[in-house]
Amino acid sequence: MKYVDDFRDGTVARALGAAIRAGARPDREYRLMEFCGGHTHAISRYGIADLLPPQVRLVHGPGCPVCVLPVGRIDQAIRLALEHGVILCTYGDTLRVPASGRLSLLRAKGRGADVRMVYSPLDALQVARANPAREVVFLAIGFETTTPPTAVAVKQARAEGLGNFSLLCNHVLTPAAMHAILAAPGGVRLDGFVGPAHVSTVIGSAPYEPFARDHGKPVVIAGFEPLDVMRAIQMLIRQIDDGRAEVENEFTRAVTAEGNRKAQALVAEVFELRDAFEWRGLGTVPASALRLRPAFAGFDAEARFAVPAVPVPDHRACECAAILRGEKRPQECRIFGTACTPDNPVGSCMVSSEGACAAHYTYGRFRVEAAPTETTRT
Amino acid sequence: MRLPHSHPLDLEHGRIDLSHGAGGRAMAQLIEDLFARELGNEFLAQGDDGARLPACTGPLVMATDAHVVSPLFFPGGDIGCLSVHGTINDVAVMGAQPLYLAASFVLEEGLPLAGLARIVASMAAAARAAGVPVVTGDTKVVERGKADGVFITTTGVGVRLAGIDVSGANARPGDAVLVSGPLGDHGMAIMSVRENLAFDAPIVSDTAALHGLIADLLAAAPDVRVLRDPTRGGLAATLNEIAHQSGVGIVLDEAAIPVRPAVAAACELLGLDPLDIASEGRLIAICPAAGAERALAALRAHPLGTEAVRIGEVIADERRFVQMKTRFGGRRMVDWLAGDALPRIC
Ligand code: SF4
């Protein structure tokens, strides 16, 4: 833990906060998008906003894998489990995402679907080995970070000749989503990006060059520790004030320009680009997700079972789409904290602790409700 | 009088079958040769459907708790001692001296008798060490697949200590919040075996009976207002309950909250917050700030409270929020957990 503690040192953080407050120009606003849900979580959990001056505004981005999964995709998984009787394995948070018909994977489980939570795709393989008479589908979600382990599982399944294992693939790509946000007509004004940590360890920093070069938006790749995030914010402010737009790397202890070549090769061997993919909040984004290559078609649940993803509109009152595009804050949703809470999520952003609404509800809602009353202490 | 059993109970290779719950000879044998032998005391020996207990003076406190834990055996304990400690603690945090326990078992067909014997022995040892006997009990057997090995429900009775008034509704602005030691050991010990997490140093459950610690604390600091054990839901849920009951807010100081490095590391790995993780042998006490040092000294003088510290204070806040000053100098809420403690993905 020594290593981690170094990146959570309160004294250093306060000094850094003071330096940011002293350095940021009072006459302008700095709108910085933290793309990644891991950063959203860290910012809320460590109370980083308290250390920043008011003109530095953090805008939550669409980088929570659970949040960006559209309803139709969850419906598809539920149908696989309920109608095709498969054992559906997936990561914990995915279980609670609201789907059509007031269902979620967790509620479908209550209705008899065999839904199991796993920590890794290899656990799903183990379920397939242990249940040779059943079909086992792994609902794979996530950005570039979680894709290599899925690729490993698929290759392993092929090596073992596991005929009862397949993948419902929802792996998505970070740079494509960042492009979609910048391209959205009338979209949110941004001055720079806090770039993803884990994703960048895989893809490296080079894929962010177009945002700096073509869009003039500085990108600083940052780790998930609170001090990482603060340093990245400081670096972004410096770039903006200097009129620079570059890709800088705060997370040098884990990220290089070219990333992890081995992982990239593995992913390229197993997956190929989809022409387009539907994202919650961003709509259909071209070349933004992966599917299995034809050589692995036998492991593709979409090819094996007749359950196409049917687009489903979000709940009427839900503002998740605007939140995922950085256009609204959680508290601006009419049903935030009333009809929609982490215990009863209406939208996906209230599910995972990396979702903007859940992070704000769990860690930050004291800020918007009545003023603190410590002064009234008796 | 011994019943005429044709075969002795095979505690090494035998398994529970439906006859062990059918009310016949097999059941009588199980009770006699396992439960009564291990847990034996003058009340159980009465052999009736209930226990005749001596009169006691003072208001009674009663608490009951169903214990469902997987795996049944974990580093630092098992479902047997846990079911004794948990209920003793539920009675003790009401400011009472626990006197008697009742235990009821739901056994799954196929359960190895050796495992059951280990569990009952562990219960007996825990009850003996705590000086709180199991005076009556019940056993049911369900078909294979209808239970997870063993479920144990324990009920405890105790007498409230004279002059003590503790309740979750008693916290007042200005009070100090104390904790008797590091948080989350039990929950992480269970999770580390369940998720096959291998750590250099295994995380060991803190399961323990707290009535001795509580008696010492209340003797030194009778003005303690709230006592709770942060079991399921951990510190976060416990403090939110108290804030709601008392209609107050609580502000914690993250830097002061004790968490063992191994527990913190495991939480980090799984994306969990140690504040949400259960303890089974820790005490939360809320007392007037003026008496906090005295209460802390009393806790630290007991073997179960050597690592006791002050972690925060009660404030006036009609929103009943539990907040935390982060180590970082920021502030955040400490909310109830939504759903189960599930690891993060990314
Ligand atoms: S509060 Fe709920 S419904 Fe509204 S945007 Fe957030 S997640 Fe969606």
Automatic annotation (TrEMBL), chain A:
Keywords: Iron, Metal-binding. InterPro entries: Hyd_form_HypD, HypD_1, HypD_2_sf. It comes from the Bacteria. The keyword Membrane does not apply. Belongs to the HypD family. NCBIfam families: hypD. This is Hydrogenase maturation factor. It comes from Thauera sinica. The gene is hypD.
From TrEMBL, chain B:
It comes from Thauera sinica. This is Hydrogenase expression/formation protein HypE. Belongs to the HypE family. Residues 172-324 form the PurM-like C-terminal domain. It holds the Pfam family AIRS_C. InterPro entries: HypE (IPR011854), PurM-like_C_dom (IPR010918), PurM-like_C_sf (IPR036676), PurM-like_N (IPR016188), PurM-like_N_sf (IPR036921). Gene3D superfamilies: PurM-like C-terminal domain, PurM-like, N-terminal domain. CDD domains: HypE. Residues 48-159 form the PurM-like N-terminal domain.
